[in-house]
Structure formats: C-alpha cells, structure tokens
Design brief:
Blueprint: H1 7-15, H2 17-30, H3 32-36, E1 41-42, H4 43-50, H5 54-66, E2 70-73, E3 83-86, H6 90-98, H7 103-107, H8 119-123, H9 140-152, H10 155-163, H11 165-169, E4 174-178, H12 184-191, E5 197-202, H13 207-216, E6 223-227, E7 241-245, H14 253-266, E8 272-276, H15 282-287, H16 289-294, H17 308-318, E9 321-326, E10 332-336
The structure holds S-adenosylmethionine.
C-alpha cells in the first residue's frame, strides 16, 4: 500500500515529528513492533500481552497508522477485534534510525544548527557552515569523524557487494577502492573474496584510519593503502578492478566524467569498474535529507544524487563495455574495459 499524503497532511505530520518519533521509539522498546510486523495482531490480544489499556493502545496505533506504517482491519464496533499489520520492514527501519549506531543520531553531531533559522541568509551566501566541518576534510579530526560517519552508513553497499560476490570477484586479483573511506567496505569485500587483494586509495591523512581497519578486521596480508589525491595525479595502475563507492556524487558532472576517464586509463584491459551509491529515487532523496540540508552551507560539496542512467550512459561514452546494473539495497553499476 502506498499512500501519498496531501501537502496539508504532510505538514501536520512534520510539525508533530518529535511526537511521531516518540510513538515509534515506544512501539519498538515495548516490543509492539515485533507483534505488529508479522501481523495480523488483534488489539485485545496485544493489550493483554503488553498489559496496556485497549482504548489507549487503539489511539496509539492510530498515530502509527497516520504515518502510513500500519494496515488496520476493523470489522465492527468492538475495538478489541481490530487487527493490525505493520508495513514490511518497519522494525528494521525504526532500528536503523533510532537504534544504537543509528546514522541519523550520528548526523545530528554535525554543526547543522549553524544554518537553522538562517536559511534565507545561507541561500543568499551570507551564512555558511564555517566551523567544525570542511569538505574535503582538512584536519585529522575532521577526517576521522567524517570517515566514521561514512562507515556507519555503508550497510546497503556492503549488502549489495556481498550478494554479488561470486560474480564480481571470482576472476579478479587486485581491487583499488578509490576514495575508499577508512577501508570498511574493502574489508567486507575481502571477507567474501578469499583470493582477492584490495588497496584503499584515499587522501594521505586517512592512512591511520585504514591501518586500524586493516588490523581490526584481520586482513593484514591482503589489504593495503595507497595515499594520493585524484585531482593532483593519475590513479595508480596494476589493478583489474576499480571501485567508486559514494565518491562520484560528491563532484559536478564534468568532474565525475573526468574521474571515470581516469579510471578507464588506470584499470587493466578487461578490468572491472564498479560504481555504487544512492542513485536518485524519491526514497533515497528522503533518506539523504540531512545532507541535502546541511550541505546547503558547504559550497565545495556539490552533493549530486544522480539517477543510475547518468552513470550507465557515462560508462558507455567513456568506452566501457558490458555495462550492467546489479540489484541490491543500493544498485551496483558494473562495466568492463575492452581487452
Ligand atoms: C563520501 S566519502 C565515501 C567514502 C567511502 N567510499 C564510503 O562509501 O563510505 C568520499 C571519499 O572520497 C575521498 N576523497 C575526497 N577527495 C579525494 C581526492 N582528491 N583524492 C582521493 N580521495 C578523495 C574522501 O576522503 C572520502 O573517503
């Protein structure tokens, strides 16, 4: 069931956002979501099981339903006989946003308040994020904090590369993960590709973070680091696979093209190029809301969530062959340099 709310209804939900979060947090903590997600769950049975008052629970569940997250079947006047089913994925979604290690909690640490209430001034260029954040990161602390946030949000990319591991890596020997953060993704790839070696290519300041990942994840022999700046020098050669994960969307179209062209030159003939990020859909734009807002005040980050077609077209134009889009929580675009 997909419900599109009117602007007026959406505004009511937004203005009551903290209360909606309170409802979902409570439903999760009490275990109500565990009963609701497989569903159907009757109101009288839930009231007895969770030792709550039926009429109060009915109103509480109205709050959840108003968010489009619950399907209700109310056969007659007896509210006790009303049964409910949560939309699939609700429990995981609540956990991802409110649970320990939630990305939204992590995002809240960023100095977004420098813009809050001053957006008009920011749009005119008078107010920027000028304290506590820089893109690309400038200090060791900024690098560490930024890469930690990135690693926290890598779950969908990790899941997609895991799902396609045998297809991706069975005939590959050396991967270069360009702009590969603190090496978390490379470590996960190595977990499911025992014959692969992977190097992370990143700004030199990130070296200690990759060294820590390498040590902590038990890949001392197969994981390396190559420090460099892809705007100052050519990408290193000698790899039969190259990946850009959440790297190209940081730059304008012309720069994204230039990076893909550099990858074409660097990768070996027959080499694999892999692009993975949140390709633009309404859902992903919503999940990206924090960064869209925060980066209004950071001109050096273009933050372009592009449709997947942009990349499939670009890869073909640059000369790659066999361009495919592999499914997953975030799709994976793969392409090969002709032999
Ligand atoms: C948005 S992060 C993505 C990190 C990681 N791939 C992930 O998905 O978690 C972009 C990465 O590009 C790196 N980067 C930015 N400018 C760079 C440059 N000029 N040369 C090399 N890496 C760069 C950053 O340090 C960062 O690790």
């Amino acid at each position: 069931m997909t419900v599109t709310l009117s602007p007026r209804a959406l505004m009511s939900l937004l203005v009551n956002g903290p209360k909606a979060i309170d409802v979902l947090d409570t439903a999760s903590e009490m275990g109500l979501l565990d009963a609701l997600e497989p569903g159907p769950a009757r109101l009288d049975a839930m009231a007895a099981r969770f030792e709550v008052l039926p009429l109060r629970l009915y109103k509480f569940l109205d709050c959840v339903e108003s968010l489009g997250l619950l399907i209700r079947d109310e056969p007659d006047d007896d509210i006790g006989a009303t049964s409910y089913r949560a939309v699939p994925g609700l429990r995981d979604a609540v956990d991802a946003v409110l649970g320990p290690g939630a990305t939204e909690r992590d995002r809240d640490r960023y100095p977004w308040r420098q813009l809050h209430g001053r957006l008009a001034g920011s749009l005119r260029g008078d107010v920027s994020i000028d304290d506590g954040f820089a893109w690309p990161p400038k200090t060791a602390t900024q690098s560490a904090e930024f890469e930690r946030s990135m690693a926290l949000g890598l779950g969908p990319a990790i899941e997609t590369v895991r799902r396609h591991a045998s297809r991706l890596w069975s005939d590959r020997h050396r991967l270069l993960d360009v702009g590969g953060g603190d090496g978390t993704l490379a470590a996960h790839i190595l977990d499911s590709a025992p014959a692969l070696r992977a190097d992370v290519y990143n700004l030199p300041a990130v070296a200690p973070l990759v060294a820590a990942t390498r040590a902590n994840r038990g890949h001392r022999d197969r994981m390396g680091f190559v420090g460099g700046d892809f705007f100052a020098e050519a990408l290193p050669t000698g790899y039969d696979a190259l990946s850009f994960v959440r790297v190209l969307h940081d730059w304008p179209n012309a720069v994204a093209r230039q990076l893909v062209e550099q990858a074409y030159v660097a990768v070996e003939p027959g080499g694999l190029l892999l692009i993975c990020e949140e390709f633009r859909t309404p859902d992903r734009l919503a999940m990206q809301f924090f960064w869209s807002y925060f980066l209004i005040g950071v001109d050096s980050s273009v933050s372009r969530l592009r449709e997947v077609d942009f990349y499939t077209r670009l890869l073909t134009e640059v000369g790659f062959q066999h361009v495919s889009v592999l499914p997953g929580p975030w799709e994976l675009v793969t392409a090969y340099k002709p032999i």
